[in-house]
Amino acid sequence: MKPIVLITGATSGIGRATAHLLAESGYRLIVTGRRQDRLDLLKKEINDLGADCLTLCFDVRSYESCANAVASIPPEWEEIDVLLNNAGKAKGFDPIHQGKLEHWEEMIDTNLKGLLYMSRLITPGMVERRRGHVINIASTAGKEVYPNGNVYCATKFGVDALTQGMRIDLHKYNIRVSQIAPGHVEETEFAVVRFDGDVQRAKIYEDFNPLTSRDVAETIHFIITRPPHVNIQDVLMMGTQQASSNFIDRSGRNLVD
Ligand code: NDP
Ligand code: 8X3
Question: Does pTM surpass 0.90?
Answer without folding.
Answer: yes
